[in-house]
Design goal:
The chain has 3 helices and 7 strands. It is α+β, with helices and mostly antiparallel strands and 119 residues long. The protein folds into 2 domains: 62 residues, N-terminal domain of TfIIb, CATH 2.20.25.240; 43 residues, no CATH class.
C-alpha cells in the first residue's frame, strides 16, 4: 500500500497518511525520510524513500513498515474533520453573520440547523 501526503500539520506542515494513521516528519537523511506517529504518546515510526514532500497527494512507497500503534487508526477522524471543516466553510459562505464560536459550539449540530438559526 502506498502512503499519501496530506496538509494537516501544525504551521501548514505536511503529514503522511498510511494505513489510516497520520505521521509527522521526524528527520531526513540522504536516502530516507523518517516519520513518527502524529499521536505523541504512540511513537511508532515509519520510513519512506526521499521525495518532494511539498507535493500534496504525492504517493510514496514505505520502506519500513510500522509496528503496532497504541491507538485506533486516524483515517476516520481525519475524514470527519475534513468534512466538518468543509461544512463550516460552506456555512460561513452562505451566512456571514454566524460566528466561529457558534460553529465550534454547535459542531455536533447539523449544518442545516445552524443555517436555519442564522437566517
Amino acid at each position: 500500500m502506498l502512503a499519501k501526503i496530506v496538509e494537516a500539520g501544525r504551521l501548514n506542515g505536511k503529514l503522511l497518511l498510511y494505513n489510516g494513521f497520520l505521521y509527522a516528519r521526524n528527520r531526513t537523511t540522504a536516502a530516507k525520510i523518517h516519520w513518527r506517529c502524529n499521536v505523541s504518546a504512540c511513537g511508532v515510526l515509519v520510513q519512506t524513500c526521499l521525495f518532494d514532500v511539498s507535493r500534496l497527494d504525492a504517493e510514496v512507497a514505505v520502506i519500513t513498515e510500522p509496528k503496532d500503534h497504541k491507538h485506533p487508526p486516524t483515517r476516520e477522524t481525519y475524514a470527519a474533520q475534513a468534512r466538518l471543516v468543509g461544512e463550516m466553510a460552506s456555512i460561513v459562505m452562505v451566512c456571514h453573520a454566524v460566528t466561529c464560536s457558534t460553529l465550534y459550539g454547535n459542531a455536533a449540530v447539523s449544518t442545516s440547523k445552524i443555517l436555519a438559526d442564522h437566517k
